Fold this protein.
Amino acid sequence: MLKYVFAEKFFLENEVVGPGYLEIKEGTFGDFYKDKPNETKEVLDYSGYSIAPGLVDTHIHGFKNHDLMATDEEGLNSISEGLLSCGVTSFLATTLTSSTEILNKVVKMVGDNYKSVKGAKIKGIFLEGPFFTEKYKGAQNPKYFGDPTIDKLKTWQELSSGTIKKIAIAPERKGVLEFIEYATKNNINVALGHSNATYEEAKLAVEKGASLFVHTYNGMRPLNHREPGMVGAAMNLKDVFAELICDGHHVHPVAANILMDVRGRKETVLITDCMMAGGMPEGQYELGEFPVEVKDGAARLESGSLAGSVLELKDAVKNVVKWGIATPEEAIYMATAVPAKSVGIDNECGKIAPGYAADFIVLNSHLDLQATFLNGDCRYQIN
């Protein structure tokens, strides 16, 4: 069925256009027209509103009281459907450090069920761990830490039906360089994080093919003027992406702005690192095996350390604009095209372009989410 969406603005990959009409044909995007096409049969009228690509969250552990590590097919679908209220239409199901047996079970569960979820589309798995080091462990359980092994990665990729898109490791661990070489040759993007690595160790990992830094500033050796550390590497190395959690708790707006300026907004990935308490009231929850208290918009372990977030990606977009460190165009780009590019799924999602699935969101002039569409159909709308 052919229909058109009318709106004041359309956030395309490299420009903002409008007012005008965006063609939707059989669930995919068609062309943009400034004037109303003659054959128009159905028009969705969003006068005064903007249309942006559906958001892409490449680092998210859970939502709506469901944690990927403790969930099943039903829970996976609940996360997927809940994320539509965040403006997210594509995401990577993200694990935590755990035992090999539990990770085997989780990746198989996602691999068996990712195609059947009814909400935001699962574009693959992000293995956050278990190949980390203890000093910057964050909310990862160090009793399961170890050196990376290609055999384990092979097993996980087989169990997951080939859906692993990204794995995070600490570059100071033994066997890292061979591991990175194998992973990247098999189209698995390697991220660096939860690490006390030096600048040189991070640099060697990037030279072997690592291409992302996990929630930059958090869980990594900080920048020092005599040893630039992991943060210095995230800022200075060429052709890498840097994740950023912009909830106002993980990173100060000034620090976020510094990273965006030196890394570039085309290589900065807005992510949430959201855990099961996302979309839920404050109170007691769990992240993996750890109890977590959610209070005043932050999720913390009993030690007081941050434990993921309750951030929704639509709010990360609003925050960076409100803080004055990104334009609306830049903010949307960092939550759509950049995350998709960072894990090699930009041929499937993250932009409004002919032939792409018509996954998009409707925003008002304050960037508040009004509706979320999947394959051209409205799947979430504010009351």
Q: What stands out?
A: The mean pLDDT is 95. The CA atoms of residues 171 and 202 lie 6 Å apart. The longest strand covers residues 43-53. The chain has two domains: 2-52+353-381, 55-342.
